[in-house]
Amino acid sequence: MSQTPQQNTPQEQARKLENIASLGVVHAVNLKAARCRVQMGDNTTDWLPWFTGRAAGKDGSHWWPPVVGEQCLVLAPGGDLLQGVALLGFYSDANAAPSNRKAVEYTRWSEKDYSEYSPEAHTTHHEKKLRTEVSSTCSATMEPQEFRMEVGNGCSITMKPNQITLQAGSATLQIGPAMVVANVDVIAGGISLMNHVHTKVTMGTMLSGEPLGAGGMGGGVIP
User: Is the pLDDT of residue 217 over 50?
Assistant: First the structure.
């Protein structure tokens, strides 16, 4: 009587059934190849791809690689671990959930950097520098104690505690708690700050009248 081929033995079939879905922990990560090895008990898999949000190249991709020690589930079609893939996203004792509140969406990028959304508020916290580019000529940069938005060359808004600076070309306007400073003329209500004239001017120690705008006596804006 001939022996049953190894791949069809009951033991082999049971082994394949067990391998279809197995919990494990990421053992190593190859960033260049986008592959990871998973430790499952005493066994370590070969290099496996991991699930991601999208993987359509230039038409839509998401990159957030796993880290060593992260819990995952290995899915192996037909029980063949060589064809397996790692499904990430399982909390564990080593990597607990970052929140336990209801109706909260929370994303953590590092120990100090996170984004949190709830019906009451939406907070994004970055401990270090963050730069967002809308296009090659429009960007926003956030650093500790500073936010800066740039549009084109030489046009920007910079905000720091108690200070806002506006720049357009060589013109700069700085707003602080005690004063506003500009390096160019300022027109307010049609009146030039640098070149306005006054009414009721009398030589001596008397004070002049209010400044005149462009339509006032003698003109208000002097080129």
Answer: no
